[in-house]
Amino acid sequence: MTTKTPWHLWLVGVVAVLFNAIGVFDFVMNIVQGSSYMASAGMTPAQIAHYEEMPAWMMVVWAVGVWGAILGSVLILLRRKLAVPVFAASLAAFLISLVYTYVLTNGGEIMGQAMAITSAVITALLVFFMWYSWLMTKRGVLR
């Protein structure tokens, strides 16, 4: 017996892909164009320096976060329950990046209030996408 796909799965999945594509774009552009991309995005020299001083392990954490989020989004659209642990890994990576920014460095001060608000929105959306994936798995929509 197959469970009918609710209309909201497509809405959530498409919104998730579009939102998380922003993170992937930002990550790729940061690697490809570096400081020139960051400057074009309006970052200050201190903010750019903060990103350029990130240790290699933080780049790995960032990669897990953004690529996990986009993969989880696609998995929702493919109706795969693997979306739940993938979103969990993405959320964990993002939370680690917040610890780095706000606890291990003075990144919170450097990045400012706008980044704090952005971080809160990202956290809320990742939690929502993970919860939604879990709920759809529980209801048999994701298999």
Can you summarize this structure?
The protein has 143 residues and is mostly helical. The protein has helices at 7-33, 35-40, 45-52, 56-77, 83-104, 107-138. It has six helices and no strands.
Characterize the structure shown.
With 143 residues, this protein is mainly α. The protein contains six helices and no strands. α5 packs antiparallel against α6. It is elongated, with a radius of gyration of 16 Å. The termini are close together.
Uncertain parts: none
* Distance between the amino and carboxyl termini: 12 Å
Number of helices: 6
The total count of strands amounts to 0
Features:
6 helices; 143 residues; mainly alpha; single chain
Describe how the helices and strands are arranged:
Elements: H1 7-33, H2 35-40, H3 45-52, H4 56-77, H5 83-104, H6 107-138
Helix pairs in contact: 1-4, 4-5, 4-6, 5-6
